Amino acid sequence: MSVAGPGPHELLARGIDEIPGAAVLLFDGDLRYVLVRGRALRDNGVEVGAYEGRPAPECMSAERWARLEPLYRAALAGRQTVTEMDGLADGRRYMVRTAPVRDEAGAVIGGASVATDVTELRRAERSRAEGERRMRLTFSSSPVGMALEGLDGRFLEVNPALCQMLDRPAEWLLDRHVHDVLEPEDRGADLVARDQVASGLLESHAAERRLLRADGSRAWTLHAMGLLTDERGAAQRFVSHYVDVSEARGARERMQHLATHDGLTGLLNRDGFWTAAAPIVGHPGRAGTGLAVLFIDVDDFKAVNDSLGHAVGDQVLAEIGRRIGASLRADDLVARFGGDEFIALLTAVRAAEDAEGVADQLHRCVHRPIAVGDRAVEVTLSIGLALVRPDDLSDAAVNRADLSMYRAKAAGGGQTVLAP
User: Fold this and answer.
1) pLDDT digits (tens, 9 = 90+) for 335-373
2) What is the C-alpha to C-alpha distance for residues 298 and 282, in angstroms, rounded to an integer?
3) Which of 161, 241, 342, 388 is deepest in the core (most CB within 10 A)?
4) Measured between alpha carbons, how far is residue 413 from residues 115, 233, 363 in Å?
5) Structural fold of domain 261-418
6) pLDDT class of 19 with cuts at 50, 70, 90
């Protein structure tokens, strides 16, 4: 003998009771509840079946019925409605969908109201909206240039700081590509970086880039770029930060310049000379050419300082440095080694006579009177000349030129002595 299981009506009711955060209420044409089930009702203190067979207005407060009655009557009139309401007791938020129930002929015989818990969904939406609000606020008020850029590099959104940095209106930028304001030499590296970030090879990328201002000048920026994706992880757009580092970079370059250049003459100093000469010495020059070193000392410069003062002496040294630098080619190196000593590294020298010709030119240009105020100062040079040999260590030729300079001074100055 078999025992019959629950019927379809009971199975439906039990199934509804197992759905978290949901409730189903069926009512007839007289607004009397036929089926009222769901875990959401139990969460709000309603016993299973407590409403069934009772008119809807009797099952709730007058205030709540005032909100539900238009929805129920709309269902009986054949219309669907959607609204949101707070729960009775659980403090949660529910979406209530109401629709007509029809017989086989299509006539409305009642209505169905389905409540679904949307509390977490709404919290997530509020959180997302708050996050977007904060992002918008950060975007618009940030002192750092910011932009949203398409995967093709076109500007989609720009903030006021970026417009101010480039001296461009937002409308102009939004009609342009990033490369329209990027230094041409930086565009290749930028494309490679964007490909790597978009493909996931890099999570983000940061590098110094030069942006072109409206007046054609360049702003050095630290460009940091990341990728925004959709919920599936597909690339959507780039978010870029452009930090103006022009002043910092300028300060760094000035510090580097001060570390390698003489403050009085503007020429390389001793450290700067060795740094610049290292990649030149030991490497062959152009076909059939070599290198030569001129070690230069100002004759009797102590007498200038003693008779005219150190301030005048400094002006004389600065002019000597200028004249020496102006007499050499762009590929040659010249430095103030210290005190009244200078050094020059000549490139593309074919024979000793070439270097001697340069030394003669230095003698002539420096010996011309140097005007300092109402005075005219005349000085001469002692120059030691050494050709750089293929097997020379970095300072070997400089040492030979230095010794030859002392021989020139011992011979009376104002001349050049070639090292053996």
Assistant:
1) 999 899 999 999 889 899 999 999 999 999 999 999 988
2) 29
3) 342
4) 107, 79, 11
5) Alpha-Beta Plaits (3.30.70)
6) confident
